[in-house]
Amino acid sequence: MDYAAVVILEILYMISFIALVSAGLAVVFGMMRVINLAHGEFVMLGGYTTLACQRAGIDLWFSMLILAPLVVGLVGLIVERLVIRFLYGRMIDTMLATWGLSLLLIGIVTLIFGSSAVNVPTPIPGYQLGAYQMGGYNLFIIGVTVALYIGMWLVLRYTRLGLIARGAMQNADIAASLGYNPRTVYMVTFTIGAALSGFAGGVLAPLTGLLPASGGGYIAQSFIAVITGGAGAVISGTLASSVLFGAISQIVSFASGPVLGDIVMLGLAIVLLRLMPTGISGRFFRNSQ
Amino acid sequence: MRVSRRDFLGATGALAVSSSLGSVGAFAQGKDILLGSVLDNSGNLDIYGKPMVMATTMAVEELNAAGGLLGRKIKAIQYDTQSDIALYTKFAQQLARTDKVDVVHGGITSASREAIRQTFKRANTLYFYNVLYEGGVCDRNCVVTGTTPAQAVEPIVEYAMKKWGNKVVILAADYNYGQITAKWLQHYIKERSGTVASTDFFPLDVADFGSTIAKIQQASPNFVVAALVGGAHMAFFRQWAASGMNKKIPLTSTTFGVGNEHLALSPAEGDGIVIAGNYSQEAQTPANQEFLARWKKRFGDTKIVHEIAVSQYQGIYAWAETVKKAGTLEREAMLKAVESGITITGPAGTVSIDPKTHHAALDIHLMEVKNQKLTIINTVKQRPPSDTAQFCDLLKNPNDNKQYEVKI
Amino acid sequence: MSEAVVETIELTKRFGGVTAVDRVNFRLGERELRCLIGPNGAGKSTFFKCLTGQYPLDHGSGRILIRGNDVGGLRPHHIVRMGVGIKTQVPSVMNGLTVMENLWLAARRTHGWDRCGSEVQRVVDEVGLGDIARRTVGELAHGQRQMVEIGIVLAQEPWLVLLDEPAAGITGAEVERLVSLIRQINQTASVIVVDHDMEFVRMLGTDITVFYQGAVLMEGHVDEVLADARVREVYIGNRA
Amino acid sequence: MKIWPSIGQMRWGWFLLGAAVILLWPVFFDTHTPTILLVWALFALSLGLMWGYAGLLSFGHTAYFGLGAYVYAIAVVNIGESTVPLLLAMLVPAIVAAIIGAMMFYGRISDVYMGVITLVVSLILFKFMSATAGDKYAIGDARLGGFNGIPGFPVLNVPGLPDVSLFGVPMYYVAAVALLGCYLISRWLLARSFGRVLVGIRENEARCELLGYSVPAYKTAIFSISAAMAGLAGCLFANWAEIVTPSVFSLRSAAEVIIWVIVGGLGTLVGPILGAMVLGMLKLLLSEQTVIDNSLILGFILVVVVLAIPRGVVPALQGWFGKRTRIRTQRAVHVRARRRVAAPAPGRTP
User: Residue A273 maps to which CATH number?
Assistant: First the structure.
């Protein structure tokens, strides 16, 4: 019985994990049709920002919840100004340029921090669940993810920013008709997307440890979740695919091992893309956000 | 197209310059003894490789300062393999065929060793592997100065089973080191009539151990042995501590500390992990203290010194001793010298090469992590590589070229 | 009764809740030239795309017979291979290639390697593309690209030709040239032209099928159709 | 043929000069490093053929390179003689690509999704191969070895003579002949109707369909041919490295080949070859120093090339030095090639 609860919590954690690391990519992809292959490195940068701030004596919570998204958002802004804005409408070129960017960022972080694994202390102790000892921080991540998605939904639904965003998602001209330069909308979107990635990286840092190359581990999962989710409905699509992939990969992990979990998840992604070439949201959530 | 061809010629021209530079350099200093090394100085294994590269540099400098070998200077040719196996084979061939070095010290993971060992054997280049590993390599051309399971794994099992009980969970890295070490673990545990509740393998890029930790709790063993390797696997120790398991089920490891993992974990997270190995910076021997002082003078920071850096350092000294004894750099004579028994004293104690297996008998410490330090619980002097010795006798079968595994 | 070149029986096409084509029975005879007209949204383009296989046919929603063969469910390239030439609404040409290269690809489908060169030359002459034969199609004006696409259809030597709005973007003298080209095509092939340019349709001077709200409103010769009160009302009323 | 200027013509003079340089190289210089450069060039050629002429970008083309390497290693360990393994190393990737290609192309999957699926295929292979260290993972006598890969398999031998191994200079010639041969085959394919239809498909898929060409069949065929070439390159790589590890399936090697091709230039065959040789050489030189991180430089090059010379170096040079007509067609061709893969926005299908 306790074990069932443990399994369910781990599944929830995996779903949250995927949803959390996918959020930034989903926003950028959903609104700009830009697939940012440096997304994993933005997450990684969030982690290193947290680490650097924490080492500098800044409060850990403040570092991961506020500073990490700020710093990575700024990096995103710079990247958008220097690279991405020249490539709008050229999807494959954007993918290539951001891929180059990801290598570049890995190199820079390696130069600064070295390529050894480093860690941020875990600020929440474990707790007892029946006979089992559980990571308290995992609960925090589940909570943060839920809060993040509710927040995103509220912003999209009830604010002027959200209105513009929803307009841009359907058609870039709508933003223009509302009196906003689409280029500005893109710039802001990319910055917000980067900030969300940095947020995810900051929050996850205490749990996973940091390597310059650890972005690669995030990109595959979030890439697949977002693309499978589809561009039609950022929140519901990404959530749906996170739930699907998170649950399945964790169930398979429990049944056999983590490797098979990954492989089953990837295989499933191929099947889904074949069956639903416009993603889950293209099929089921046509008119929501 | 015309221009692109010119481009091509330009590139190949550069190539010619670079390759001829290499051979000209080697020729001009033809009297130097050439010591090659292939180690991961960058990439995700550089936590192991960087200090080994430094140790190589330091050992060669010290030997040269003491007059070199056979009256000749030693020149180190070190290549960075960037944690990429393909570069190992490339540079191994370069060392053996182009640079024509007299000896090679290198390789970190067992995967990298197996990628290059045969190259050196074919090229008749003496090869030293100076890293703890899963044991069993029986190759006359290859000298091993790192620990094997009989030396560093059995003491853990012995100590932990006596102290905590006989139900064990094994977690191991999913490549030959982890696979074979897990077999030895199972062998030693069964020998002491213990039970292995489960054995799980993890590819080097796995960083999420949530389901694993839950499964371990379900199995509720008396203790856990972790033979995990590399940066991503560090996450296990963190997640283990984050869930509070470090207070509940004792944890031991065959690899912890080798990459200075104890420094990356906070005291609260790392304390209590039991390991066994050849080296602790805390060892109060004069040899170790002097070694650390020299390191500090040369590189500044001694924090990063770990067991396999010391192993590499000792390996080079053992080879130097071999050359002195042989009086020549001819491979056969050096091997004869190895087989006559070589003994040196290094920072980690006495290293004596066993003529039958070309492995080293070493001093082994049982250690516990306390406040980011590897505190020595007890020490066994000159523990022999008895695992490999079960199968391997190079004096009798000099042409043996196999890696033996324990049968369970 | 002679075999029809094209025949649809109760052809129906729905998109979601909208019925774009509603139980259309249509028949095109040998060497016949027929115009499909109708106001925007009348279903003529949808009907056309059903014929070409661009819109797959739903199960149980009528049949399409081309020379007696049921082609419902076939993909466009299968239909084309029967000897059907298709020109789509938006000029669909290979923009990065030259005019001659475009024609070559069209000719190669029906002709052997050795004959393609002379076929391309024939079409260039017939359509009057000589001046632009070596230009990259992407650089040409809209009307010129329309003519290139007609040329592509010609190069296939089809016995059934389906043209969707061939006159769009073509002006003055070019229209006359187009009309004579279509007549020429009609010498060897049955032709369906979809267009709503009345002037152009009048110039073709042929039989007409009028679509309205997904169904056939009436059929007849151009003069009697254009004189019909219902057609005038539907057409002009809706266009205004 | 006068009708077809868009596909670069075979220039025998330059080809013979290039071939002469490659074939005479071992007379003067060391061959170990040049061998791998030839192998990488072949790999880049395989992707350049498919991407540059058919407009199909496989993000995970390294899957077929790696499959070639693994198939060779597994087969040669079991068989001993290298001729059949060499053929299998081309055949198996070709079949796998044909299956995956048919699944994608007959399913009308858009270009971006094709990118995702091809990448995921190589990720799956990477994960799977990394997890095969246990001794239960063996095919015949060959243990897959997980992260270690398969070391110490017999290298290529003279067909029929298992004892006469080809390594060193003979191995270099094998790679040289493979590269030159595949180049000629690619040229031949492009000069046939097959190649022209591919270019047509790149330019306008719907039009080719309406001309009666079976677009999915053509795409599947070129994907399969390209995979066979990549497999051959992988097999040669295995012979050069004398070990096969899962890193052949890694994201990094997937990225590398794309960088070589895009830097060298799309819509040419010599571009990818030169791109691979120059950047491959750069990669090797960089690993002999430890000051600057290797990935930093590669990343920088990729970003700069995409921004500054999106056509790639060779077409840009051709543009500057070639005849005016050539410039125009090359540019137009190229722009189409990029735009075609760029245009469709997923999730917005009508």
Answer: 1.10.3470
